[in-house]
Amino acid sequence: MKNKILFIIASLHFLQVFTIVAQETIHPNVILIITDDQGYGDLGVTGNPHVKTPTIDKLAKESIRFHNFYVSPVCAPTRSSLMTGRYSLRTGIRDTYNGGAIMASNEITIAEMLKQANYRTGIFGKWHLGDNYPSRPSDQGFDESVIHLSGGMGQVGDFTTYFKGDTSYFDPVLWHNNQQQTYTGYCSDIFTDQAIQFIEKNETSPFFCYLAFNAPHTPLQVPEKYYTIYENIDPSTGFDRDGKPFPKMSEKDKEDARKVYAMVTNIDDNLAKLFKKLEELKISDNTIVIFMTDNGPQQLRYVAGMRGKKGDVYQGGVRVPFYLRAPMVLKKDKDIETVAAHIDILPTLATLCNVSPPKDRKIDGKNLLPLLEGKTVNWEDRPLFFYWTRKYPELYYNMAMRNGNYKLVGRTNFNAPLTDFELFDLKKDPYELENLILQKETLAENLKAKLDATFQELIRSDNLNSPPRIEIGSKHENPVILNRNDAGGQRGIWAQEEIFGKWKVAVNKGRYNIRFKFIKPVPSGGTMFLEAGTFVHRQSNGKENSDIIAMNNVFLPAMDCDLIPFYTSNGRNILPFWVELQKLD
Fold it and tell me: Where does residue 110 rank: exposed (0-12), middle (13-18), buried (19+ CB within 10 A)?
């Protein structure tokens, strides 16, 4: 009888343990790590003898390694595709600024998808998909957010760090759950520490942690102790070239590389701290870890021989490292040569986390689980589209289509003949040196037809033709601060004073106090104008020069419009640096 009771107790204990393990396996934790402007060659594991990345190298050896993984040539498009599984143009993302880096709020993100299984969700670092309601992380499925604004700290859109100049990465004012908060330390350390705190708070429930470092993006600022590791190296020497092309580096390129490597090593140390915490909490085996970068390097340096850099549709601009470790379902490390892309992450996580992907829209990505499990018999290569130009795509300029081993590249005019394009066999020519356009015209024509069809479909996307608007006077965000990153108008709006700019907004009816902040004090005696649709308000400035002008108790009706502010003085029209609108009623 006693043995029978012990057997029953042991059986119940086994069932309890089995149930816990089963639940953990059904909904594993997810940590998605992405770095900013770190190229394929900025890791030890990808052949760089200078940069010290022991933690990431170890992760790579423990992971499934995709050797042909692709992203967009620049950051906001990559991040929108990563979050939604869709080409960026479908989401309303068409630029990194110029008002084109606001993702439509009707998009469904990984965070929103995982909410089906009650995941707790957090983002730490760079969002770059909209700084105002309804496009902030908190509006797109994230419970916890500690982020900087716009495309980078120290940039014009991130107005809490812009005026810090060469120290913008240190002791910054960040945005914690949409409120400004002062932090002490270096940005990558802060974002990692905040991610660890989030994980500690949610260790007993499934969580999604999006750790999106803004490093090693410019401005290249790094703690001195990391810079000293690299201050005496020559980043142009020491490589096993083995026939690989290598860019000629100027002295500035070399100094930039030293700083980038220092920033990457800092990230590596932070990831060591993060992974140690997973082990201490005993959740490492139940946590999917993904490491990737968002595009190629911004500066010239080692990129494993590939052609191009950030912004290019050549390999150096769009091929990045991608490592996925999922010990609960995928036990062995593996190398995968099949082409995959950022659009594949959402559908893959949907399967690994046992949630449903969005069913009411086109998902461009594919579930990679068959590749992860080695089931490639029925896997079909699909065409992948790449482009990058400012504001909107320019037909056939910096545009590419890859299908299988072949890639068609256009850097030409909209009406150019086929012979003006480039065709590469990437299996035989991974460095894109031999143009096969004259030898394989039929193949090139087929790729161009696919490129044309994809372009024509994407350029008609609803969210592109009816772009997202920032909501003014909402209960979800009041006041609203419109920043330069989201200003449209003339191309290339940045920190210029005399330039035409506007913001696309959806105004709630009411009375507003409005403040206009200028980069430098504007001269007295001028006039401040605010155009909102058919409503125009003007106010004479007083006798003193000032960098802030206020318009109080301004009535605005409910409307969708372009908000156009400018200060006119002595024939000059000056655009504010930011505009704050606070609804009073």
Answer: buried
| Nearest of 426, 235, 442 to residue 338 by alpha carbon | 426
Six token digits for residue 61 = 């050896």
Q: Which of the residues in the chain have pLDDT under 50? A: 1-23
Q: Which 8-state DSSP code applies to residue 464?
A: H
> In whole angstroms, what separates CA 434 from the centre of its chain?
32
DSSP one-letter code for 239: -
pLDDT, one tens digit per residue, over 126-168 is: 999 999 999 999 999 999 999 999 999 999 999 999 999 999 9
Per the CB < 8 A criterion, the answer to whether 134 and 371 are in contact is no
Q: Is 559 helix (H, G, I), strand (E, B) or coil?
A: strand
> What residues contact residue 159 under an 8 Å CB cut-off, 6+ apart?
149, 481, 483, 484, 517, 577, 578
Which token pair is 443?
Answer: 């193949």
How far is Cα 108 from Cα 115, in angstroms, rounded to an integer? 11
On the question of a cis peptide bond just before residue 247, with omega within 30 degrees of 0, the verdict is: no
The tens digit of pLDDT for each residue in 30-42 reads 999 999 999 999 9
Q: Which residues contact 393 (CB under 8 A, 6 or more apart)?
A: 89, 94, 387, 399, 455, 458, 459
Counting beta carbons within 10 angstroms of the beta carbon of residue 487, is it exposed (0 to 12), middle (13 to 18) or buried (19 or more)? Answer: buried
Residues 6 or more apart whose CB falls under 8 angstroms from that of 253 comprise 235, 236, 247, 299, 300, 301
Under CATH, domain 18-372 is a member of which superfamily? Answer: Alkaline Phosphatase, subunit A (3.40.720.10)
- Cβ neighbors of 282 (< 8 A, separation 6 or more) are none
Average pLDDT, the chain: 94
Strands (E), 177-311: 179-182, 207-212, 287-293
Domain ranges of the chain: 18-372, 384-464, 470-583
Report the top-level CATH class of 384-464. alpha beta
| CA 129 – CA 480 distance, rounded (Å) | 16
